[in-house]
Amino acid sequence: MVLLSAAAAARAILISLHEVMASRSGPQAKLNQIVEVIGAKLDSEVCSIYLLREGMLELFATRGLNQAAVHVTRLAVGEGLVGTIASNIETLNLAEAAAHPDFAFRPETGEEKFHSFAGVPIVRRERAVGVVAVQHVDPRRYEEVEIEALQTVAMVLSEMIANAELIDAEDALGVSAQQTGPERLKGQPLVKGIAAGLAVYHQPRVTIEQIVAEDTEAERQRVYLAFDRMREQIDRMASQAEFGVGGEHEEVLETYRMFAYDEGWSRRINEAIDSGLTAEAAIERVQQRTRMRMRQIDDPLLADRMHDLEDLSNRLLRIVSGQLGTAASMGLKGDAILIARNLGPAELLEYDRRRLKGVILEEGSLTSHVVIVARAMGIPVIGRVRGLRGCVRDGDQLLVDGDQGVIDVRPLPARTEAFETRFAKNRERQAHYAAMRDVEPVTRDGTRISVMINAGLRDDLPMLGLTGADGIGLFRTEFQFLVSATLPARERQTRLYRDVLDAAGDRPVVFRTVDIGGDKVLPYLRHNGGEAEENPAMGWRALRVALERDGLLKVQARSLLEAAGGRTLNVMFPMVTEPWEFDAAKAVFDGQLAFLKKQKKPLPEAIRFGAMLEVPALAECLDVLAPKISFLSIGTNDLTQFLFAADRAHSKLAERYDWLSPAIMRFLRRVVQSVAPHGIDLTVCGEMGGRRLEALALLGLGITRLSITPAAVGPVKELVRKVNLPDIARAMSGWLDAPPPNLRAALSEWACQRGIECD
Fold first, then answer.
1. What is the reported pTM?
2. pLDDT for 500-530, tens place per residue?
3. In whole angstroms, what is the distance from residue 561 CA to residue 603 CA?
4. Which of 3.10.450.590, 3.30.1640.10, 3.20.20.60, 3.30.1340.30 would CATH assign to domain 441-524+537-753?
């Protein structure tokens, strides 16, 4: 066979298919003609079409296999090569079909003499409703142009078979029989919390009315105009962003701009139009191929970039079809649970936080950027939820339990009532804690405890006033880097830091220098030659990155120094392992300070430097480090996983090791004792300090400064006012000297006896 281009091969087939579909033949006769057309055009000895009926993939038409097998051979989804294609919605291209682990021989088809095999899914509304496959006697992989031609044909077939009612109605509509009664789905808890609301799909489905183009040039012009409008739309979104011009939102949109001008992407769409597809069908055709490629990508960085491209494809498809807007741009009408395959942090920030109650992702992971931002926003997230689109419709009632990773779809009244009772108790507590805003956290013996918040977004700043917190004990500067398509410019960083200090007023703000790497990978900052790290949490991250890429730290140092002109600047370095790392990082700031002095720029009135104790090794050198620092913050999240050699993102280990174990408590007591003679501020940052029972234990160790999530400020304030420090200090000392079988249980009993609620 003399191979044509992918577009020419597909166009030749589409012309013939158009003639077949225009004929007055019945659906079965048309399918019989179609397999002959495809087989002849691709010079393939076998062409077969399998369609989904009654939950099984049934052989509907074939050229080359035994005709007696038609409507007899049936495969379950996931069974054999055909079932695997439908289950995974992926393309297979095999030189030797029998060598594939999923190969299933069907003797009635007479396929034993054929070696090569290629198959593509017939997709309708993101569900596989069939498979078109070709086979050949000689062992060979099919050429890329042949595969692309098959994929184009599969698009046309999806419309034809649905219109001809060759598949069950629910399959044609993309609706399963499960979408009527109550259903329970299980996923991976990504951000804890509970929420209820109506299902809202981030990207409403775009219905493609016409597949085959009547005028190729007219379709091309429609795509060109859509590209122009898409770029204008992104620019407008940046200027009207809720978080202001120059904020994180605008930076993320730079990612979309890069893809919008990508010549390879626009060329592939043009080639699909050349094959005879309409503008909408061409975009969808390229998008389907992107989805299939994503399923084969192991590199999380590259997979994230592919997700960005798919998001942009959806935006372009909505523009060209006239069906504009994501659910965010159309506005949420009430309490909503957002559903998406994946989501970028900028897209999440587009939504009205008053109405967005939870997020469910078909994919997603603990390390994805959107999860990091959602956690800061206090929105529960569940990921890795399979079968969402086959089970959940727009507007369905959903109950989301982010603590357990469970979603109740169309719940029964009894379950809804139990959930509402749980909500009511939460609301009562929240109202009670909100009333604590102006109450000072003073213990019964008169000790003032400092209760601060962790922050990282501009949107977190109002929480200072709403909670009555003493300041920001941890401002995560990396959030600005995470939602940016490129390294944030110095001026942009300076503007953010100045805004934070302005919002805080007289209250202190501790800026942690950028903590990237590990679970916070930046696509524009490659490391280790692009190789994946086996243990990223203990790898090239945080201060290690900043010291190697000193330009990164220099820019941030100058930005912080300029932003704090005339004020006190608190700077904390993350993941300090040995004192020399602190010295090296401080030297960068000293160098930038000297430069600004020469430039006669306004300088901070005072600069306080500190370190974050996350790596246990630093505890052995505190006598060396303490004289050099003004404060020390203990990062309990990372510290715990390093002490126990337990990845906190590992589902089997996440709950295995207790913060209230003697190992952790004794370690923290030793740190308190080590820094006491030096008179430096000691703060605990992280989730541990925001949990009441754990906070009680920390108070007993002598820790009087906590930096926690805004939602935990009220509960911790209330706890503080019920505690007599000498009493809990004596109790903790006794337990740590002679640990009880269960320290958590002992502490809980102690608290209950004194009327201190620590749930």
1. 0.61
2. 999 999 999 999 998 866 555 555 455 554 4
3. 6
4. 3.20.20.60
